[in-house]
Design goal:
alpha/beta; Spore Coat Polysaccharide Biosynthesis Protein SpsA, Chain A; about 350 residues
Length: about 350
Amino acid sequence: MKHVEGPLVSVIIPSYNHEVYVRQALESVLTSSVKDIEVIVVDDGSTDRSIEEIQQAADSRVRLIRQENHGAHAALNCGVNAASAPWVAILNSDDRFHPRKLERHLDFHEHNSVFEASASRVRYVASNGVPLHTPSPRLKRYRRAVTAAQQADSLFASFLAGNHLVTTSCLFVSRDTLNEIGGFPPLRYVHDWFVFLALALRGRFVVIEEELADYRRHPTNTISENDAMGRVEDNFVLEWHLTQAFAARRPIMDIEEALRILGRNRRVSYRLLLLFRLWRELNDNDLNRAASIFMSPDHPFMRSARGIVAAEESGLRPDRLLRRFFGRRVALAADWLDRGLSYAAKLALAGRERSEVE
């Protein structure tokens, strides 16, 4: 392995109210087979005993940064800004690394220098840390998603169907690359998926098909907090990256393939995609400005987005209409599908126009 001044890896642990789990997270890093690391714990305004638990880790490699509560994305960006190593690994404060995780990633990149990021698979564990062997509905969905991702034409295409990496705890990425893509946007539920798609779009991101981290399932998992808002964020992320993909000089997929993949993703809403396309254009394609809407839940656009989700979840989703309803309601379904096709056509036109200009 090439000699590097300072630590090889900066492990960033965003921490918030995980007093029961954070020590286990820390111990899993500190007992890693790779010792030349720094561990940056960013506490995001915890109100429990998380700080006391973190401070009990008597290891000079651990650095604690405290900030007011601004969300996981802000804690992650704070940690990245404080990192000094060329590589960044992320571990959520309720998850655990396997002993050889960092070693496995470093070894992969040593022998495959073209790649700027890699991710591992995760092992689902219960709140007490015991691996889940009895397939729950969520675990079954995860395994199906992994299988589908492995069969996809590209990593980017696999992410359009859903976030099969599940958590930032799987990610290992060049610090420079993370800075180049702008870090993590202010999304509460899918900031990880946004970054995964951004990395996949660059084409130098790979998944190591080994379970190298434990993803802990417990009642306070953020992802289970507000499914409706999670779906709103899902469609913001999809619209943003689809636009980026088709605006490239050489799009990495065609419109038909994108529509086929979106058609299998049950969280896709064409109406939300159109809404966020309009919002992005109003904000001059500036990600920070466009994503800042999620910090303002009472903004008219956010109220409209939540209204769309409420309407569709009440039984008005186009695919359900086509399956279950007939007569005058078919016209409504056709209208929504037409909106979706119009959206796809606009993406294709934007891509062609940009290619002609370039």
